[in-house]
Amino acid sequence: MDRLDHLEHLDKHLVDELAQVARETVRDELREQTRKQRRTAVLYAASGAVALYAGAALALTLGLLLALGLPDWAAALITAVVLGAVAYALRSAARPSASRPTAAPRPDDTGPETPHHRER
């Protein structure tokens, strides 16, 4: 009986050690994946900030070019309208609409709304 208790203790100890190793391995793997994703996120954020400054410089250039032949207020107004139109077009492109097709139906969909359904 004493020998069985000793083996049970060893089994429990072995299971605890295996669980510890598994936790450490998973933790290290997640840490590595997080590090890579963090770097990617920082690069995307930096590119977005630079694109914002580039867009501001482009808008300023457009305004200054228009100001050469128009009053300053008119040049600023035209620049604002152009930027508003671009923003509206981008928003419309991002929004799903009924005229644009959505995701294609999967072949395993056989409901009445899919073309794969046959009336018998």
UniProtKB/TrEMBL annotation:
Residues 92-120 are annotated as: Disordered. InterPro entries: Phage_holin_3_6 (IPR009937). Residues 106-120 have a biased composition (Basic and acidic residues). The chain crosses the membrane at residues 41-67, 73-90. The keyword Membrane applies. Keywords: Membrane, Transmembrane, Transmembrane helix. Residues 92-105 have a biased composition (Low complexity). This is Phage holin family protein. It comes from Streptomyces spongiae.
